[in-house]
Amino acid sequence: MAAKNNSSAARKARIEEMRRAERSRERRNRILTIGASVLIVGGLVVGGTVLIQSQTDDSGSNSASDSKAAGKWKTGSDGVKTWSTKLSQNHVTKSVDYPMEPPVGGDHNPAWQNCNGDVYDKAIKNENAVHSLEHGAVWVTYNSKASDADVKALAEKVKKTPYTLMSPVDDQKDPITLSAWGAQRTITSATDPNLDKFFEKYVQGKQTPEPGAACTNGVS
After folding, report:
1. Side-chain half-sphere of 149: how many Cα atoms within 13 Å?
2. CA angle (167, 210, 37) in 5-degree steps
3. Bias category Low complexity: which stretches (predicted)?
4. Plot region of 138 (φ>0 → left; ψ -120 to 50 → alpha; else → beta)
């Protein structure tokens, strides 16, 4: 019992630390935004940068097939599947044809989906959600086979957990799926103990390409 209480306390401390870090990033972003608005004379430079980035994005979008690079799932003894090849991280502005549903990585939109415990009752774009995974978020998805009780309970869990998001994905095979960058597993219900295990390991986990990156001020 003592070990369980220590684990729970450690998790709460970790979540609180992530919340403090997120609030700090938001304050820095506000300061940077105010400063940037004063530098109007830099508009031409910014415009040139945007033009170059746009050209790069358009070029990158043509390589969306890179996300189809040869790869397959490897299933571990814990039931978690990991993608066998390195996933690309290019920013693109067009749709990406991912080799798995829901996707767990690959080229993605420059804007991330808000993932600070955000729950969406309608489908979101894969390209934005993948960017959230790059930032260390866990994406909880479900289809019409999931019970209303499970969807409600999962939503409550997500709302309490920074660096998570939730949305319906009608085309996924199983009723409830958990996805992180390069990793995925299914769970049987909202009370499945593998839910907490996945959150503990993959929310801002070692697999995160950009740990600490924002999960707010994105697409909502």
Report:
1. 3
2. 90
3. 1-10
4. beta
Which token pair is 65? 């097939």
Residue owning tokens 């799932």: 73
Q: What are 86's two structure tokens?
A: 């390195």
Per-residue pLDDT 10s for the chain (220 aa) are: 555 555 566 666 666 677 666 666 665 555 444 444 444 444 544 444 444 444 444 444 444 444 455 689 999 999 999 999 999 999 999 999 999 999 999 999 999 999 999 999 999 999 999 999 999 999 999 999 999 999 999 999 999 999 999 999 999 999 999 999 999 999 999 999 999 999 999 999 999 999 999 999 999 9
Q: Two tokens at 146?
A: 């999931």
Q: Which residues lie below 8 Å from residue 25, measured CB to CB, with a gap of 6+? A: 212, 214, 216
Q: What is the DSSP code string of 191-209?
A: T-HHHHHHHHHHTT-TT-S
User: What does the alpha-carbon distance between residue 57 and residue 95 come to, in Å, rounded to a whole number?
Assistant: 12
Q: Residue 52 has which token pair?
A: 């170059």
The strand pair at 116-119 and 176-180 is best described as unpaired
Q: How far is the C-alpha of 112 from the C-alpha of 122, rounded, in Å?
A: 16
Residue with tokens 């801002």: 204
